[in-house]
Design a protein that fits this description.
Elements (H helix, E strand, L loop, with lengths): L1 H8 L42 H6 L21 H13 L2 E7 L9 H9 L15 H22 L6 H18 L5 E6 L6 H10 L4 E6 L6 H17 L1 H4 L2 E4 L7 H15 L9 E7 L3 H5 L5 H18 L6 E6 L12 H10 L4 E6 L7 H17 L4 E4 L7 H14 L4 E2 L4 H5 L6 H19 L2 H11 L1
Parallel strand pairs: 1-2, 1-3, 3-4, 5-6, 5-7, 7-8
Antiparallel strand pairs: 4-9
Helix pairs in contact: 4-5, 6-15, 10-12, 10-15, 13-14
The structure holds ligand L6N33NVT and fe (ii) ion (FE2).
The ligand C=CC1=C(C)c2cc3[nH]c(cc4nc(cc5[nH]c(cc1n2)c(C)c5CCC(=O)O)C(CCC(=O)O)=C4C)c(C)c3C=C binds next to helix 4, helix 5, helix 8 and helix 14.
């Protein structure tokens, strides 16, 4: 129905420059026209606004950067939208910016990488009067944490594979777009290590991109991941007159897309076959955790989206006749606060006690292999599971370059093109004026520093950091 109309609505148009796939973004040709080939695309444009709570927390003070909250991939795509997409692809120089976390490439990178991570106010969230201490606290925690992290990275070959995999995903998405006659430059911007988002944005400017789709490589939205990366991006765009005028669409989450759900179900179905009795294996979804306060006090939709995501994958598996039991747990907690429960390590012990014998681990919050799949799941959790009485252990690989997944991401990009809007909004400036009260700022700084140092140097706090970070 809608999808047939969509296919019929697009005509192959001339690509004036042809296309090749040079490694450098600036060399990449970007002017071309679109032809939508896929009959099964059901293009969806959810122009939803960010929920108030999340928006507040991330200082989303503009009415921009708020399109394409999710591109669901299962709504109708009318002729007007199709026509708009066609004209954007015809007239614009399209860029796609993949946002990711980044990871240390060598063991020497580990401490500075951790510093960048803990210096992020979306990761260590200090009350306003203490925020000027962010750097000092980040330094302290990164130094304390580095030895443990280094052990982990040493165990997976001395560094994170994230940059290489993300670059490969960028190339694959670019090729998938090209196969749909959309020429685009695909850029990679990391939050905590090279290539930093700032570098990618410089390149986007140099390349004179005129329409940008931002695709965070996190299926579910969290303040600590997509939220943080988008905040940085928003700051960079707001400061630059050229970039402020570039229409941008941000795909905030995409766990609900059919292409993603089906690709995950494919991987799980395939991996279950390694068990002598595939139906007996429990499917063990292990998601990266976040502190409970993100969800309960700050409205982070991460947990809700994660649960919906698991429901969608399980529904799909059931529809395929895969009746296995499943469970969701959260891994990788850091620091002296409560994180989302149940914790992966505790659940593994519990399942062992209950007599579960076969377990298939499914990493579900991230789409590349990284330290938490290769070291934490494959080594630490596997060992714990076997010690706890689980006899058969399997692990689903991360989606990586899975073709159906990459194609679906390319579809998500195409679907979001018409919703792009320029970020320029002069009213933004006045909304920041609450920080202009110099006197109250100085008072807060003064008392804040005294309190913070007293807290930081208290034996209780030191112990808490030591116990949970080493
Ligand atoms: C959806 C994914 C992720 C969420 C949510 C997330 C939140 C989060 N993470 C930390 C602290 C650390 N994360 C680390 C590594 C790391 N985190 C993610 C993903 C999410 N993090 C990935 C993909 C990686 C690995 C990158 C790689 O190099 O392969 C680390 C460093 C590793 C370690 O020492 O364990 C820390 C520290 C917090 C505090 C947080 C939420 C507040
Ligand atoms: Fe993390």
């Amino acid at each position: 129905m809608e999808s047939t109309a969509l296919s019929a609505g697009f005509r192959p148009l001339l690509n004036p420059k042809g296309y090749s796939f040079p490694r450098s973004c600036s060399e990449r040709n970007s002017l071309s026209l679109v032809r939508c080939q896929s009959k099964e695309i059901s293009c969806g444009l959810n122009k939803l606004k960010l929920e108030g709570s999340v928006r507040g927390l991330n200082s989303f003070k503009t009415n921009v950067f708020e399109q394409a909250h999710s591109v669901s991939g299962d709504c109708s795509y009318d002729d007007t939208t199709a026509a708009k997409t066609r004209s954007h692809v015809a007239e614009d120089k399209i860029g796609v910016l993949l946002l990711n976390l980044g990871g240390p490439e060598t063991l020497n990178d580990v401490q500075p990488f951790l510093y960048n991570l803990f210096a992020d106010p979306d990761i260590i969230r200090l009350p306003r009067p203490f925020q000027f201490l962010q750097g000092t606290i980040a330094k302290f925690i990164s130094v304390v944490r580095a030895p443990k992290s280094k052990e982990g990275y040493a165990a997976i070959g001395g560094g994170s594979p994230l940059r290489k995999i993300t670059d490969e995903q960028a190339d694959a998405i670019q090729m998938a777009l090209q196969a749909k006659n959309v020429a685009a430059n695909v850029y990679v911007g990391m939050r905590y290590w090279y290539p930093f988002t700032e570098e990618a944005v410089q390149q986007i400017k140099k390349d004179k991109i005129t329409r940008l789709v931002v695709l965070p490589l996190y299926p579910q939205y969290s303040i600590s991941t997509t939220g943080s990366s988008v905040r940085v991006l928003q700051d960079l765009f707001r400061k630059d007159p050229y970039l402020a005028g570039v229409p941008v669409a941000i795909i905030q989450s995409w766990y609900q897309r059919r292409g993603y759900v089906n690709s995950m179900a494919d991987l799980i179905e395939k991996e279950l076959q390694i068990f002598s009795d595939p139906k007996e294996a429990m499917i063990f979804f292990s998601a990266h955790g976040v502190p409970v306060s993100y969800v309960e006090n700050s409205g982070d939709p991460y947990q809700k989206q994660m649960e919906e995501c698991i429901d969608l994958i399980m529904e799909e598996l059931k529809a395929r006749g895969v009746p296995n039991d499943h469970i969701l747990a959260y891994q990788s907690r850091v620091g002296p606060v409560q994180w989302l429960k149940p914790y992966t390590d505790e659940v593994l012990v519990d399942l062992g006690k209950k007599g579960v014998k076969s377990l298939l681990a499914v990493p579900v919050s991230f789409v590349s292999e990284h330290i938490e799949t290769l070291e934490e799941i494959d080594m630490e959790y596997r060992e714990l599971a076997l010690e706890s009485g689980i006899e058969n252990w399997g692990r689903v690989p991360a989606l990586g370059l899975t073709e159906s997944f990459i194609t679906d991401l390319a579809d998500a990009v195409i679907e979001s093109l018409p919703s792009a809007k320029a970020i320029w909004n002069p009213s933004v400036v006045s909304e920041d004026s609450d920080s202009s009260d110099a006197f109250s700022y100085i008072v807060k700084m003064f008392f804040g520093s005294i309190l913070a140092f007293a807290l930081l140097l208290s034996p209780k706090m030191l112990l808490a950091f030591r116990n949970h970070l080493i």
